[in-house]
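Dear support,

We are seeing what looks like truncated structure output for some complexes. This example has two components. We would appreciate it if you could run it in full and send us the complete token output so we can diff it against ours.
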Amino acid sequence: MKSPALLLGLSLIASNAAAQFPTAPPPATPVAAAPAPAVQPFVLPNGLKVTLLENHRQPVVSLALSLPAGTAYDPPSQAGTADLLASLLTRGAGSRDADSVASAIEQVGGSLSAAVDPDFLTLTADALSEHIDVAMGLLTDAALRPHLDPQEVDKVRAQAIASVQADNAQSGNVASRIFLAGLYGSHPYAIRSTPLTLNNIGRRDLEAFRLARFRPSAAQLVIAGDITLADARKLVTDAFGDWKGVAPTPLPARSPIRAKTRIILVHVPSAETSSILMGNTTIRGGDSTYYAATVVDRVFGGSSSSRLVRSLRDERRWAESPASALSQTNGLGMYQVGAEVRATVTDSAVRELLAQMRKIRTDTIAPEELQRAQAELTGSFPLGIQSMNQQAGAILKARRMGLPASSITNYRKQVTSLSPARFRSAARTVVRPDSCLIVVVGNASQVYKGLSAIAPIAVIGPDGTALTPADFEPKVAVLELDTTLLVPRKDSLLVVAQGRTVGVQVSTLERSGDGLLYTETTNIGNVISQTTKVSMDRGGRMRNLAQAGKMRGQDTKIDLAYDGGKVKGSAHVLGPNGPMTLAVDTIVPAGIVDDNALQALLPALKWGPNLRWTIPVFASGQNRVRTLTLTVRAVGTVTVPAGSFQAYMADLEGDEQKVTFYVSVDPPHRLLRLTVAGTPLEFVAVPTGGDRAP
Amino acid sequence: MNLPLSERRTSLVPQNNSCSTIRRLLSSLLLAVAVSQIGAAQTKLPGALPVEQYKLPNGLEVILSPDHNAQVVAVSVWYDVGVRDEGPKQAGYAHLAENLMFDGSANVQPGAHLRLVSQAGGDASSDTEDDITRFYEVLPSNQLALGLWLEADRLRSLTLNDTAVTVERRVMRDERRYRVDQQAYASPFLLGTEALFDSTTCYGYAHAPLPPPGALDSATVASIRPFFSTYYTPRNARLTVTGDFDPAAAKDMITKYYGDIPGGPERPKFTCTPGTGAAGSRKEIKDQAAQLGGAGLFFRAPAHDHADTPALELLGLILGQGAHSRLAVALSGEANLVAGIQADLVSRRRGPSVFAVFAVANTGVSGDSVAAVLRAQTVEIATKGVTDAELTRAKNFFLAGAVNSRQRVQDIAEALQHAATFLGSADAVNKDVGRYMAVTAEDVKRVAASYLTQQNGLTLIVQPGRASS
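Here is the complete output from our reference environment:
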């Protein structure tokens, strides 16, 4: 039994220990200065610049060779040359065919790959240091002696074409393609491959490109890992000593292109969201303002806690992941800002993005915002330069931009030592809301009006064809029915709310005497249970309407007769203040449609893209005539239990709630889906005898 | 447990599948020449990792391995608890516990763990396996204290509440759906692995890592608390710190943050008698998530520290790694090589394990036809052995992997933890690779003949259940 004093003493000790445990995250300690990487540069007589980073921790060596043969050097009519060449360099070179190259690098447990960016084509190889000869041999063969076998060329070209076609189907990629073309104009950074340009490229073109661009004096080779300087010299000299050629023509330097802010709207009729991509040309990667600019970008839209995210996602719920990015190229850079938003808020989102761009230029960025951005950038930086492969890549990147290797170890210090004035200056240099290009990919019939109030605007199709408002704005159409489409039919719709089936609607149209009879039965739980009978003449003109049923337990009954320009009868309905009976005796215009009969006539309208009808409707529940508009907004694929169909999407507006109809493009225009704005309700067609399973 | 085909080892060199027999003969002749040259070179083993180990009075094991290559550190905590420790009424608890570890502790709000790490520029990761549950943070080295503190706070004061349990149960239902139910070949693979064990004598390895929907519906704070108090304790944990840090300063912090946490009870001993299970049998299963059929051979294999493990792992590489493996060559045409081939130990275990050989069938090819090829290839190696070139390629692949996992601090930490858990001690990390390099062609032939037999395993035929689009 421990004495009370001892117990007390023990509990004091325990509580002291507990008191020592911090109740808040412990702060970071100061970043220690990192020694500059001990690089050993040398140059071969033929001009090849080599940088060696010796590191004998692990028996591995990483090689990276960059050649000034990026996509910006493609002949415009053969855009895609650099990319195809990169894919082909490792598919057969020197004395080995494609399979033997793969086999050889696999045999030594190494890796070999090629990649392109706008400025450079880069070959990389990694291997255990005892097999560095094999890896260097394969890399050298790929650079200096690729086969470019015609069968391989065809294969790779076909893959590239398929890839471009798949990309073009995505609206984010459409925006990107048009943005780059619009931003860079005739600058080589705008060059993008198309199936046409890819088909223009043959083996001779690839070889000519390689011979013209692969020159030793313009190439950079980085070696990192377990190899001495003497061995590295020998390895490189044996491999590349005989490589000849004068420096290739560089890309001309260009100053940022400044044009006043303008909008390119790419019209995609089926788009329910808009892809927004905006920005301007700016500094190159090696510019002295670059570090400060990356911090500004981080604050603005470069992280999940950025200003753009707080404004467009957290506060306004317009976009899931708005973002910004600063490119890092050798030549003219670009700053871009993007978001994917609902069609209805497109112009508001563009205005807000422009406002945020103005704000970041004039604000003094708050210390907490700056520190968070700096902490994230400087904190994550060393995680990315641990392995030999990562270190080789980082050194190569610096060398390509003409920066010393020490810029890598200085990065953290540089970013943290910048003054607030430097950030403001960087923001003003890089972010240019008054001279930016705004590309929006979306449904012009919904967004054109709002956008045209912001800046000068041009509308094009995805293939670049110029469009005028006549091409996408609703065309007024005469309300005419194709009576040949008023044929007997039966449709069933499920009523769904938030994924659960809550009811059914069955409708039939049949011949009756010298006219037509439309019968619609709707059952939605114990909310609605109703049968409507509409009798019309052969031309779809109203004769009688009879509706009976229950709504929320209350009986409803409507009996109306349409004759001689009038509608007469009675309506016992559930009004805003409870059940009510209305005596109906109203003059109605020709072509009047009872609001319960509209669905019957939809299949017979002369549907087409962009049409707008004005429909006089008698609203029996309100005992008056209303003028509604039905506007075809889009054409696209709709999938319902009955299958997948091409459909027109049309909004019926002018009443309390907007109703959207989806009818099949193919006549008779079957109602496939119906949604009621502001409610979770949707009506979806289920299979009838003639449907194939989806 | 690695679910099938979820981690394909692919080489970066584009694959060319249209090879003629003559080309293959020629290239193997070239290789024979090349091999004799390679054989002459000296194999360089990975550089040794410094290892300092000690134990706190409360039982927490600590491993320190400094390395000033880059200004980064990794903080790794392994808990000696995994799927195998779940009892019949605790299916899914190991994963559930892993998820709950991120839902807050006394000084860390729910969800703040990951946010604090990413604001510091770092990354965090976790995983539940058969035998262990692991967590790590990799951070810039001036944030070592943050990493140590976050792991200490949740070890000493994890918040368990009903909201968190409800949310994580739903998360696990979703995980089960997309990782198992909707993932082609996942269910069959699990079945093949579990069927070799008798659930009454080895429930631990006989049940699924992610339980079917409904299994966790009865999990509550009250029901899962004992799981935490038994297994999430200093006595049952090992902390490893690697990278750019000063050992003396780290030790002080570790004592300060972890020293006063009560050690916890001795954990129950894990037992497993595999039983005869379904060895020697043929099973068929319809996979609702698969459009193509497939076949798998599942064999009993020993614990990770067994002398035969290196030979078995190299056998797996020879059978299934890369475009020139035995199975890739034998199955071209029969199997959908894009969907993948797998031949390896299914997971790392201190108890009886499983070696699986699996391939997806091509359109129009039956599962039985693929199974026949898989069987024939295992018999081929068991009777005729492997070539020197194949063995060299497998060893180089393994060695390159071992070297690569000693370059980044997070991988170094995991390598040390692995050695301490599965090889008996942390400093085995510097001896283990040598065991693989010492494997002979005779060893590979022998383990194929001992383990890859019909009586030691089962055949699983997968029928596709999903209509093709």
